[in-house]
Design goal:
Layout (H helix, E strand, L loop, with lengths): L2 E2 L7 E3 L11 E9 L14 H14 L5 E2 L1 E7 L2 H10 L5 H10 L2 E4 L2 E5 L8 H20 L7 H18 L5 H11 L4 H4 L5 H4 L2 H11 L1 H19 L1 H9 L7 H9 L3 H15 L2
Helix pairs in contact: 1-4, 2-3, 4-5, 5-10, 6-10, 9-10, 10-11, 11-12
Amino acid sequence: MKSVSQRLPAALLIGLLSIAGCGSGRVVLPFTLDASTLTAPHAAEFATTEDAIRGISAIMVRDLGLPLPYTFTAYVYSGRQGFERGLVDDANVAPVRAAELSEFAVGIGKRRQLLLNDEGGTARGREWYRLIAHELAHVSQIELAQGEGRAEQWLAEGTAEWAAFNVLERLGLDTVANRRQAAAAGIRNHAALLAARLDLETLGNPRGFTVRHLREGSLPTYQLAFLMADYLITRDGFPRVLTYFRSFERRQDRHANFHDTFGQNLDQFEREVLAHLKSVVR
């Protein structure tokens, strides 16, 4: 399946079609990419979730260089129960895992799938757009790696937040600097910083990341992941991070791929980024 990358700077998602109307509690939105036209979207133009997905996807491809699949499908559900059922029926998530995810998540990015819980149909504005961008970033990461759950989970989540905050900045709704400041304040008393041990080995796998954020708090755990990813992106550049995700297409080895891409092992990076985090929370 083709993907949109920096070699295709002009891309706009078109061919939007709603299947199964609002009365069913589930709307299916197939997207197809067309490289012929692209316009700079504004948040004020997002009258619907469809508009938001299309516009945010354009920003991610054109401005951030994040590839997206040539085709993907968005599923929008009207409540938690429908979202949980959709994770099982539409995304083939195990029922036990779907029940767990639906308790705290309102969006999931799968391979060529975007699943959103728009409970009440009124979830609009900055955080809704952040959620869409975050989950679209996961769709991109999965496409790059040609599979799910292969890369370091803290880096996948942190990079998704980084991409989402950059989208909000381009929409004029927030700034990355504001999010950095909020994240630094949010992790000041984080258990990992107080213990001087991030434990990237646990944060690096999907299950371990879930356990950590349920135990230590979702917001500070995602803020921690964002600040670590932001540090790595600032240090080595965003294209290098995309190269890291691509490395899983040819070899599924978390530790070797991190070392080969960034020139250090996870323990070395943990020590380096821990010193950085301590400096930004002072």
